Amino acid sequence: MPADVLSVAEVQAMLAADPALKCVVCYARISFDGRAKDAHGIEDQHRELMAKAKALGWLVVYRYTDNDKSASKEEVVRDDFEQMLVDLNTGRTPEGYPIHGVMAINDDRLYRRLGTVPPRLHRLP
Fold this sequence. Notes:
- By secondary structure, the protein is of the alpha/beta class.
- It has helices spanning 8-17, 40-56, 79-90, and strands spanning 23-30, 59-67, 101-103.
- The protein has a three-stranded parallel beta sheet, with helices on both faces.
- The protein starts with 7 loop residues before the first helix and ends in a 22-residue tail after the last strand.
């Protein structure tokens, strides 16, 4: 979770005041985090996504992270990705934050093979 995330009640109050506000979640994944495994690649992705969301006037309410996990290997389970799909289907995080969309650095962060975008994911313009 981002350190500066508002409470669910605060987000709901903001949405009541501005129904056009978009609450988004960020997904970051990296296949190889190097020998240190310090998550610097993941943090770089999240930092860039937070800046982009702010520039668009969107509110980031949750961060999903799969560090040091390949998307090209079928046997690799991406726990946060799987949880994100469940949350997208309900439209809320487990804590109750509303989800209007997902941000990722690149399309390939989300799907396993080029050209196989899951049907429940749609690219934003």
